[in-house]
Write a structure and sequence with these properties.
The structure holds 2 protein chains of 2 kinds. Chain A is globular, with a radius of gyration of 13 Å. The model of chain A has no long low-confidence stretch (mean pLDDT about 95). Helix content of chain A is about 0%, strand content about 55%. In chain A, strands 2, 4, 5, 9, 10 and 11 form a 6-stranded mixed β-sheet that branches. A 5-stranded antiparallel β-sheet of chain A has the order 1-3-8-7-6, with no helix packed on it. Chain A is built from no helices and 11 strands. Chain B is mainly beta. Chain B is built from no helices and 11 strands. In chain B, strands 2, 4, 5, 6, 9, 10 and 11 form a 7-stranded mixed β-sheet that branches. In chain B, a hairpin with a 6-residue loop joins strand 4 and strand 5. The model of chain B has no long low-confidence stretch (mean pLDDT about 95). Classes of the chains: A mainly beta, B mainly beta. The interface between A and B is medium-sized, with 28 and 26 residues.
């Protein structure tokens, strides 16, 4: 009930391409869905987040698409750059819950 | 504000020893969280505080783990009688409160138990 499943585990994209990472959740009480970016030796950093009252949110090159009926959400990175090479985690939490449940991460490599 | 600070960055300890980690959250954040991350996995929830009150502790957390947040400021996480399976990155995060926003994470403490 608390799982968040993330795919793919790893992704290789050419510079300028689109990177797409998917997550699926089970708990319908979740109502906050952030994405985090983590570089080696650093803690995760909040990238972008969405609530289920909208189906899409865009910030610069990063877009979250949300499908409430399918209980799925995805991160799209447009015009991917080598500097985007990192591990990306999706997460989910409920408004009245303190903790977040994280996916297992996607390692993105953007080739120049 | 310099963000979330964690100390030490790295800790190597012998099996059976006790270790303590410290986290200083962003000053205006009243919630503080501890997570554990192992290689190839996402952060796993350990416990969290609202001000000085510990509101939730993971059922996966053994009695060897204890956390405190005296006066609602910094927090400490202690692991007693460390085991090799405790080797991981221990992450601290803070935010203003439930559902308001995501976490600001520190850079973590890397624990190696030998």
């Amino acid at each position: 009930q608390q799982q968040v499943k993330q795919s793919p585990q790893s992704l290789i994209v050419q510079k300028g391409g689109i990177s797409i990472i998917n997550c699926a959740y089970e708990n319908t009480a979740f109502d906050y869905f952030p994405w985090y970016q983590q570089f080696p030796g650093k803690g995760p950093a909040l990238l972008i987040a969405i609530r289920p009252d909208v189906s899409e949110k865009k910030e610069g090159r990063f877009t979250i698409s949300f499908n409430k009926s399918a209980k799925q959400f995805s991160l799209h990175i447009m015009d991917s750059q080598p500097g985007d090479s990192a591990t990306y985690f999706c997460a989910a939490s409920g408004t009245n819950a303190g903790k977040s449940t994280f996916g297992d991460g996607t390692t993105l490599t953007v080739k120049p | 504000d310099t963000g979330v600070s964690q100390d030490p960055r790295h800790k190597i300890t012998k099996r059976g020893q006790n270790v303590t980690f410290r986290c200083d959250p962003i000053s205006e954040h009243n919630r503080l969280y501890w997570y554990r991350q192992t290689l190839g996995q996402g952060p796993e929830f350990l416990t969290y505080f609202q001000n000085e009150a510990q509101l939730e502790k993971s059922r996966l957390l053994s009695d060897r783990f204890s956390a405190e947040r005296p006066k609602g400021s910094f927090s400490t996480l202690e692991i007693q009688r460390t085991e090799q399976g405790d080797s991981a990155m221990y992450l601290c995060a803070s935010n203003r409160g439930a559902g308001v926003d995501g976490y600001t994470f520190g850079s973590g403490t890397r624990l190696t138990v030998v």
